[in-house]
Amino acid sequence: MPSETPETLFVAHATGRLLHVRACPQLLGLDAPIRATAAQIDSLGMCAWCAKELSEDGRRYFDSVEQAVRTLDPSDDAVRATEVALGDVSFDLVWVPPSYSYIAVGDKEHAVAWIGRGCVMHADGRLVDFA
After folding, report:
1. pTM reported for the whole predicted model
2. Which of 62, 63, 88, 95 is least surrounded, with the fewest CB atoms within 10 Å of its CB?
3. Of 120, 89, 90, 84, which is closest to residue 103 (Cα–Cα)?
4. What is the pLDDT of residues 71-120, one digit of tens each?
5. CB atoms within 10 A of CB 129
6. Burial status of residue 116 (CB atoms within 10 A of its CB: 0-12, 13-18, 19 or more)
7. How far apart are the C-alpha atoms of 66 and 62, rounded to whole Å?
8. Mean pLDDT of the chain
9. 59: burial class by Cβ within 10 Å (0-12, 13-18, 19+)?
10. What is the DSSP string of 4-29?
């Protein structure tokens, strides 16, 4: 797994056998997935869904959250709700994975929030629902 991937990697539980990004459907519903250790990142395989999501092939970067949100929902309400839900989150990059299933914001080290339809999930586990 390249260390420059702008995502924090997780395992579903301490003895997990696959690495996941926080927005992985396999982690949805888990209150606190466990951040993968360096040893796990070196030794475990990647969930097939997550491997596709992390692929630079097909990833699209945007200049702003507004620009990215408008690709999924062009309404002003969606943009405003997303910006409020993000709050004061600091980020340098905005991207969507090849599936266009969410929008991620982060820096060159990791994602700090994921924007879905009607919600924002923060890296600390907070889910802000604005639907």
Report:
1. 0.65
2. 88
3. 120
4. 888 889 999 999 999 999 999 999 888 778 889 998 876 789 999 888 89
5. 11
6. middle
7. 9
8. 83
9. middle
10. T-SS-EEESSTT-SEEEETT-TTTTT
Give me the residues paired with residue 116 across strands.
119
Neighbouring C-alpha atoms within 13 Å toward the C-beta of 105: 23
**Cα(86)–Cα(56) distance, integer angstroms:** 24
Sorted by sequence, the CB contacts under 8 Å of residue 48 that are 6+ apart come out as none
Distance from first CA to last CA of the chain, Å, rounded?
A: 35
Which whole-number Å values give the CA distances from 14 to 19, 35, 37, 59, 111, in the listed order?
11, 9, 10, 30, 21
The radius of gyration of the chain's CA atoms, rounded to the nearest angstrom, is: 14
pLDDT confidence of 4, banded at 50, 70, 90? very low
**pLDDT over 50 (residue 3):** no
Structure token pair of residue 69: 């949100």
**Residue 31: which pLDDT band, with cuts at 50, 70 and 90?**
low
DSSP letter (8 states) at residue 118: T
